[in-house]
Amino acid sequence: DWAASAEEIVAIVRASAAPFSGAYTHIGLERLTVWKAEPSRLPYPCLGTPGQVVARSTESGEVTVLAGSGTVVLQEVSSETSSKTRPADTIRSLRTRLGIDAEAQILALNAEIERLREQLADQERSLGSP
Fold first, then answer.
1. What's the pTM?
2. In terms of C-beta distances under 8 Å and separation of at least 24 residues, what long-range contacts does 43-49 make, across chains too?
3. Distance (Å, whole) CA 35 – CA 75
């Protein structure tokens, strides 16, 4: 929950780190596990919504994300398709917003429901024909 404070988010990350399965968020529909993070404060004012990427360093590999209060510096992450890596290698744009995108989830679920309906109709047609 990116609306929580930076300190609360980092506490969840620390409590969920190895040997546990890690704290996670989402980039679009892909699950992103956060293994290491620390709270921070930006040296300048920043407007945005919680979960929004507000800084990205290709040198350190860190990505800074806006929280409900403060910011969280992501230091190590993994995705469904990659092992533990630097966040900047996975999150490539300041336009990225982390967290569940409910609209995208609903659209994906509706598409899957439609696919399953079509599959069922095809099976019913094939069973009904001699």
1. 0.77
2. 46/71, 49/97
3. 8
